[in-house]
Amino acid sequence: MLYLKPNWPAPTQIKAFTTTRSGWSRNVHEPHNQVNQSLEKLLDLPSSPLWLKQEHTAIALEAIPQHVEKIGDASFTKQHNHVCIVETADCLPILICNKQASMVAAIHAGWRGLSNHIIETTLDAIQQSPNDLLVWLGPAIGPQHFEVGEDVYDAFTSSHPHSSIAFTPHHPGKWLANLYLLARMRLQARGVNQIYGGEYCTHTQADLFFSYRRDKGITGRMASVIWIA
Fold it and tell me: Most-buried pick from 7, 10, 157, 216 (CB within 10 A)?
């Protein structure tokens, strides 16, 4: 399997994919322009992806050439053939479109991004009715393998006490965190309820995915892309 296609009721004009480790990868030290061609060929992209410099921020940028390689962890566009892209290797890629096929967005959502409100910032930027939005949660580390400390638990529960249901006590001072559930809760809190995906685990499905934790930081990245054809 070279890539995944979201299982969601998106309009036919919406094109979305996540690569697998056998389909495409990028070493963190490789410049994006060195891997553009292979990704474009694999997914038949209409243009070069609008890459971001991901730093677990709450910055959402419009996917325009002027923002290529700018610091940000989400991009969005209403333009045809502008390819939004995020890279992950345990963090959660979130792809969004509306039912009218007039807007798409891609979010890089690790625990830092989620706690920094990257979902909320993106929803504010795209200015769409929650009832019109479709969301796909791509492959991320599963809730049985994402061990975190008190700092992560506190980052969520101090401002959103209900987030505690996404954490399972594991060892003293350690929790198992459910990234998928944390993202769903943030989306649902903003009225977004048509949410799909969330069934993969990058840590355990080594044949399909890179995993930063499983591979102890020495690993490639998967790409999640979305555009309006």
Answer: 10
